[in-house]
Design a protein that fits this description.
Blueprint lengths: L2 H10 L5 E4 L2 E4 L4 H11 L2 H30 L8 H24 L8 H21 L1 H10 L1 H27 L1 H4 L1 H50 L2 H31 L3 H13 L6 H12 L4 H4 L4 H15 L7 H15 L3 H25 L2 H55 L2 E4 L1 H5 L11
Parallel strand pairs: 2-3
Antiparallel strand pairs: 1-2
Helix pairs in contact: 1-9, 2-9, 3-4, 3-7, 4-5, 4-6, 5-7, 6-7, 9-17, 10-16, 11-12, 12-14, 14-15
Length: about 450
């Protein structure tokens, strides 16, 4: 049975709880709800009988206490004794009656069979009664000193109320399962929602796996078709032209590098000439200024703009003049080397050595590219490569989405397993039985294998 089938079995399958070993009850997740209902039904007499009996007892004691408070209110404090003390005692009596009456109203049992409201009432009423009696102890002491008998009876009723509430709490504690049923059912619903989300994630993963399989199948077919095309005579001719184009581009790059290496020996002297010109210490004509600017900015373009090297040689002559006249400050050896380099560059045939070769390479490149365009298989190859690139991109994106969903599914499986384990532990604690949820073993741990994206 695969994982999706198991999930459907959890959500819609049947089966009965069964003891797996002595003292252990194993439940399928879909059996937890009926299990809670059956256990709650067994303990429903708590709400039907015991709780109403406790409520009746509390109500009766409250009525008796109210009657005693009314009697207390009518009792007069005698004239004997200290007048100031009698006045304090009367104030204490009135205050005690008012506060106690308010407490009695607040701890009246509710008209409800909602187990959570009953539980809340029990704990809150006991806390309130204890808190108010303690906070009213001074008034009680004053009143008890004067009206001992009535206050003693009221004290007995307060004790009776406290004992009734404690007894009710003990009943709730012994039947805590019943009083936590609602929260347990809420936990079951949360797990159902998580399982539904897990199922959706698994369905998406399954759909993406089919999509990826289709993409890889189409990509494989496209690569096979491209390979057949590449083995054709036209494709081999095209490959030869592409190889020739690469060779031409490499020769062009080498030619430019050679030119730059040839003229770069004049960089430092020409920078000094540019500095003189900027300061107005030496005047260059516009042509020489432009040539000097191009040399300093991008020497590799110089021979394409100055095809015969005439402007560059004119600039070199001006440089020679400034060196000879010592307008440019150079060390003796550097000065001699610069003049030597100038003479060598003046003798270079820039047109033949560089421009003509560059022109020939450009012509060969255009001819090669023109031949490429005449080969119809080029468009077919380009189209196939684009299609394969598209398949590869789709494959990567699908793999990323699928891995993300797998991580999500794994996290949900862990969360569900922990929730089921916690639910089983809570059921065990509340029922006194060892309860286990079967799906915990199937869900956790369950490592997820992620697919690598190319």
């Amino acid at each position: 049975m695969n994982f999706l089938e198991k999930l459907f079995a959890w959500l819609f399958g049947g089966g009965n709880a069964k003891p797996t070993q002595r003292g252990v009850t194993e439940l399928r997740f879909d059996e937890v709800g009926p299990f809670l209902e059956s256990r709650a039904a067994q303990k429903s007499e708590v709400v039907d009988k015991e709780v109403p009996a406790k409520f009746a007892e509390i109500k009766h004691t409250i009525r008796e206490t109210k009657a005693l408070l009314e009697s207390l209110e009518k009792e007069e404090i005698g004239e004997d004794g200290n007048k100031r003390f009698r006045k304090a005692a009367k104030t204490a009596k009135d205050d005690s009656i008012r506060k106690m009456s308010a407490v009695l109203e607040r701890i009246q049992p509710p008209f409800t069979d909602d187990v959570e409201k009953i539980r809340d009432y029990s704990y809150e009423s006991l806390e309130l009664l204890d808190k108010k009696v303690r906070s009213n102890s001074k008034n009680i002491a004053y009143t008890s000193f004067i009206l001992k008998d009535t206050m003693r009876e009221i004290g007995k009723k307060v004790d009776a109320l406290e004992n009734s509430l404690k007894s009710l709490i003990e009943t709730i504690r012994k039947n805590d399962f019943l009083f936590q049923k609602k929260s347990l059912m809420s936990a079951v619903e949360e797990v159902k929602q998580e399982k539904a989300e897990l199922l959706r994630a698994e369905e998406k993963i399954s759909a993406l796996e089919k999509t990826l399989e289709s993409i890889e199948k189409n990509s494989k077919a496209a690569k096979a078709a491209l390979e057949r095309t590449m083995n054709s005579g036209s494709a081999q001719e095209l490959q030869a032209l592409e190889s020739r184009k690469k060779e031409i581009l490499l020769e062009k790059a080498k030619l430019r590098e050679k030119f730059v290496e040839t003229v770069l020996c004049m960089e430092r002297p020409l920078k000094k000439l540019a500095n003189l010109s900027e300061k107005g210490l030496y005047s260059l004509d516009t042509e020489s200024e432009n040539t000097l600017s191009l040399f300093l900015r991008e020497p590799g373009l110089l021979y394409k703009r100055d095809t015969k090297g005439e402007s560059f040689k004119k600039l070199l002559k001006a440089l020679k003049e400034t060196i000879v006249s010592e307008k440019i400050d150079l060390a003796e050896k550097e000065r001699a080397k610069a003049l030597e380099n100038i003479e060598e560059l003046l003798s270079v045939d820039f047109f033949s050595d560089f421009f003509w070769k560059e022109n020939s390479l450009e012509k060969s490149l255009r001819e090669t590219e023109a031949k490429e365009k005449t080969i119809s298989v080029k468009a077919e190859i380009d189209s196939a490569n684009k299609e394969i690139e598209s398949f590869d991109r789709d494959s990567r994106e699908t793999t990323v989405a699928m891995n993300e969903l797998r991580r999500e599914a794994e996290n949900r499986r862990k969360k569900i397993a922990e929730s089921l384990r916690s639910l089983g532990a809570t059921l065990s604690s509340l029922t006194g039985e060892k309860v286990e949820i079967a799906e915990v073993k199937e869900l956790f741990p369950r490592p997820t294998a992620l697919r690598e994206s190319d």
